[in-house]
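Complex 312.
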Amino acid sequence: PYEVLVVGGGPAGASAAIYAARKGIRTGVVAERFGGQVMDTMAIENFISVKETQGPKLAAALEEHVKEYDVDIMNEQRADSVVAAEKTEDGYIHVSLESGATLKSRSVILSTGARWRKMNVPGEQEYSNKGVAYCPHCDGPLFKGKKVAVIGGGNSGIEAAIDLAGIVAHVTVLEFADTLRADQVLVDKANSIANIDIIKSAQTTEVIGDGTRVTSLKYLDRVSNEENEVELSGIFVQIGLVPNSDFLKDSGVALSPRGEIEVNAKGETSLPGVFAAGDVTTVPYKQIIIAMGEGSKASLSAFDHLIRTPAP
Ligand code: FAD
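Predicted structure with flavin-adenine dinucleotide bound:
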């Protein structure tokens, strides 16, 4: 059995694994895809002390750093359930994998991340990282002085529009419904900013580009049934971030209404010995640097738990 078993190999998981291994305790990492969302990212300019890097390069560096230590990396393995120590006969926490194997550990760190909900329209995939973006904090400055759209009129969409309006030339917000779901204070703020336009009852239908970059966006006006086209350079999709926590449904790990793992300031979940870190948790602001900090914190908390708890 492991002392610390990390589920998820993104920035949070890599950081948790390194902190655990540095304590000299038996550490494993199970990851469906080592590197996580970082693998889908191009320019990264806000990972402090590294002025500019690319996602795959950072992911390779994460893996290289983890491999400096004695950590069992089980890549391309998906966890499908977690059973609390109090429910197992041997007193270890059990993590079962889709492959059929069961891993046992005295403590578990859940860092399975999240995924941005996609528009699922033609051109979105093709122009991802070529104008189609999901993170205004990350990619906003890349569109300085240009026209962009924000898809989604919920809190994250309207916050993104307010944020981007200070950097870009113009922001068009497209909301599918006939009302905005965002808080009224945010809507009022957005309405007071001259370079934000909000269009309701607008169904995005296609992302158009010139082969290398996004050039426009088509949407259907759901009231008049007319198809319109907006010329722009960037599209920020803000229709939800879905935590990868489905496999925890019957585990007893408490989830928020949005499916995020509830954690306290130490990264503890509702189950003893089970910790969580990164985008899958209730910790606000989903960023690489935050995920890494939370991963190291969860790992130190796991170590604290281990030295206070007798082995089964
Ligand atoms: P993730 O990176 O999501 O990693 C989750 C890990 O868990 C992966 O290894 C995954 O395969 C694994 N996993 C999931 N489910 C299971 C399972 N059931 N069993 C086993 N393994 C599982 N942030 C920035 O700070 N700067 C940026 O410039 C930036 N740009 C971004 C651009 C894009 C296109 C995207 C999508 C995100 C960007 N982000 C950026 C956000 C950043 O990537 C995330 O905040 C960060 O990766 C979160 O780390 P994490 O370890 O919590 O989760």
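The mean pLDDT is 97.
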